[in-house]
């Protein structure tokens, strides 16, 4: 009777599941050991993968912050309706009441010429020059908030006989949405290209490791070891490369976030905004590390599977 393969020899009191689990743990620990024994090539591989992963992730983070900022801006969907200078204040109030009754309008705020002049004095620094004016040149202003997207509202307000100027920011919001859609598509393209590059880097690293252990693999094949038994350490090696590279990508993006957060907050405060950069949450960070490890696992699996198909001895 031929001896059982080394991976199938069971210790007394051990079942097959325990042996299988022990080999998984051993493969994982041995993979970290092999990485530490080659610090130069390990750092190079992890660095290339980390940068490749950080680029699309950074673009996604930037787009998410821009979209969040755009969402805050779009909450103010007001349409500014400047009435003609000859419209008296009672007529302006009556017009505001009529607009409030429309189903496509959620809110209407009336700003009188006196309120507009006070705001202009406070914000422009021209209080002395404005005080010399005999008459108030400002018209009444109606700030109209639509119930929905406000499509067609500006056109209907322009048709009012009391309307003089109607300002609506729908055009720039549409352009911003277009840029955000383009940026999202660009992020997916970069993720696909750089993800493929990271997969190739892992595959090449594992291929070099396979070449160094060629004799060991041949001996295991002659002893009857299965492909899964031989492939397992290399799979864990690729997963370890991916996990550490994902952590490096998060570290790079966190450093960039910390370096940009304070200047951006100061810039936002100068415009009267409380906007601040928002980084990755803990859930996102875990997903990135797990996804990077899966990417490394796939790259190692493809290379190892190709090698084993080429070298598996055939029965004669």
Automatic annotation (TrEMBL):
Bilayer topology annotation: Multi-pass membrane protein
UniProt key word Cell inner membrane: yes
Listed Pfam families: FtsX, FtsX_ECD
GO annotations of cellular component type: cell division site; plasma membrane
UniProt subcellular location: Cell inner membrane
InterPro entries found in the cross-reference section: ABC3_permease_C, FtsX, FtsX_ECD, FtsX_proteobact-type
Transmembrane residue ranges: 43-63, 186-206, 234-256, 285-308
Domain FtsX extracellular per the UniProt entry, residue ranges: 79-149
Keyword field: Cell cycle, Cell division, Cell inner membrane, Cell membrane, Membrane, Transmembrane, Transmembrane helix
Domain called ABC3 transporter permease C-terminal: residue spans: 189-298
Domain of life: Bacteria
GO biological process: cell division
Family to which this protein belongs: Belongs to the ABC-4 integral membrane protein family. FtsX subfamily.
Job of this protein: Part of the ABC transporter FtsEX involved in cellular division.
NCBIfam families found in the cross-reference section: FtsX_Gneg
Subunit structure: Forms a membrane-associated complex with FtsE.
Name of the molecule in the record: Cell division protein FtsX
